[in-house]
Design brief:
The chain is of the alpha/beta class. About 40% of the residues lie in helices and about 15% in strands. It is built from 11 helices and 11 strands. The strands form 3 sheets. The protein has a 5-stranded parallel sheet, with helices on both faces. A 4-stranded parallel sheet has the order 7-6-8-9, with helices on both faces. The chain has a two-stranded antiparallel sheet with strand order 10-11. Strand 3 (about 100-105), helix 5 and strand 4 (about 125-130) form a beta-alpha-beta unit. Helix 2 runs parallel beside helix 7 and helix 4 (about 60-75) runs antiparallel to helix 9 (about 235-250). The radius of gyration is 20 Å and the shape is globular. The model has no long low-confidence stretch (mean pLDDT about 90). The protein binds 6-O-phosphono-alpha-D-glucopyranose. GO terms for molecular function: glutamine-fructose-6-phosphate transaminase (isomerizing) activity.
């Protein structure tokens, strides 16, 4: 049975391809409300003068999208942020004047709903960021924003990740802009990067489709993979490792690259594949040298030019406060291509469900 739209037989392949269109839809709907703050105010969110911190809760891919979003409040707005695995939220201390952003594609994930139960009275405002605005999560939150991804069938989230990041970024930029929490040069740079995202995602698809297929053939027999990043790039490394685990059932670990020397470097042997999300941090060169000195094979995504099979490839450097979002595209493509070579069902990975309604 052919997937309803697109050229692939699986939904996931089509959902990956749809990401530039989804990004454009989100930006057309939300970007006009950023600079005048109408997006923030229209959601009924409180003044940032009454918010001391932002806490994001979520699971799986939604948690990673939340980490990217938290980076905007922190890097651009100087607001203290934390991101919580929803199933651990009950063990946290909650302070007043907190903006809680509950991230869930389905809006039905039990761990996220239980995290809301853990909130004390007068904790602050809860904003639900979901792909289902009539979900239980949406009903139980003070404010709701639809991430506009459209239905996602593949169990492993792809286009909802991009949609959640961009929706959250628009909301964050709107609040930071209207309450004057960022300097205009940095805000301007982020706004330009945001507008360039749909084309950036399309360029990443074009540039990496072939090379990722080639890389998957090359690494089909690898037993494990490391994913490294620093700063704003780290969340994409984490999402790449999660996609690989979900789809290929191979071990994949994501680490802040600076932690390599404190343990994971012991995993690196001749031929160990190490994926590096390059957000332009010059210290990554040192991290990479540590890997190559042990015979590890570095595959680098981001700013630099990479040569695969003699073909030079390039992803433009993206330095916005949410990090190099476009790098998630080759990581998704690689995970899918590897899974296909291993004869996995990329739409329905074993042991996993699209929406987990038990906690
Ligand atoms: C399940 C899915 C993951 C997803 C997570 C959170 O575990 O298999 O792909 O990221 O739930 O789902 P949510 O609907 O809350 O975003």
């Amino acid at each position: 049975l052919l997937a309803s739209t697109g050229r692939h037989r699986d939904h996931m392949g089509n959902e990956i391809d749809e990401q530039p269109v989804v990004a454009r839809r989100v930006l057309e709907a939300l970007a006009p409300g950023i600079v005048d703050g109408s997006l923030w105010r229209g959601l009924g969110l409180p003044s940032l003068d009454t918010i001391d911190r932002v806490t994001v809760v979520g699971c799986g891919t939604s948690l990673h999208a939340g980490r990217a979003l938290a980076g905007v409040f922190a890097r651009l707005g100087g607001l203290p942020t934390r991101t919580l695995v929803a199933s651990e939220a009950a063990h946290e201390v909650w302070e007043p004047r907190t903006l809680v952003i509950a991230m869930s594609q389905s809006g039905e994930t039990a761990d996220v709903l239980r995290a809301l139960d853990a909130l004390p009275p007068r904790h602050g405002t809860v904003l639900a960021l979901t792909n289902n605005p009539s979900s239980t999560l949406a009903r139980r939150s003070d404010a709701v924003i639809d991430c506009l991804a459209g239905p996602e069938v593949g169990v492993a989230a792809t286009k909802t990740f991009v949609a959640q990041v961009l929706t959250g970024v628009c909301v964050a930029l709107s609040g930071l802009s209207v309450f004057d929490r960022t300097d205009s040069a940095r805000l301007g740079a982020d706004l330009r990067a945001l507008a360039a995202t749909p084309d950036g995602l399309a360029a990443a698809l074009d540039a990496w489709r072939g090379p990722c297929a080639q890389l998957a053939t090359e690494y089909a027999r690898a037993s494990g993979f490391l994913f490294l990043g620093r700063g704003a790039g780290l969340v994409y490394a984490a999402e790449g490792a999660l996609k690989l685990k979900e789809l290929s059932y191979r071990w994949a670990e994501a680490y802040p690259a600076g932690e390599l020397k404190h343990g994971p470097l012991a995993l690196v042997d001749a031929g160990t594949p190490v994926f590096v999300v390059d957000n332009g941090d010059p210290r990554l060169d040192v991290d990479i040298a540590e890997v190559t000195a042990r015979g590890g094979r570095v595959i680098r995504f981001g700013e630099r030019v990479l040569t695969v099979g003699g073909v030079p490839l390039h992803l433009p450097r993206t330095g916005p406060s949410w990090g190099p979002l476009e790098t998630v595209v080759p990581l998704q493509l690689f995970a899918r291509e590897l899974a296909l070579r291993l004869h996995r069902d990329v739409d329905k990975p074993r042991n996993l469900a699209k929406s987990v309604t038990v906690s």
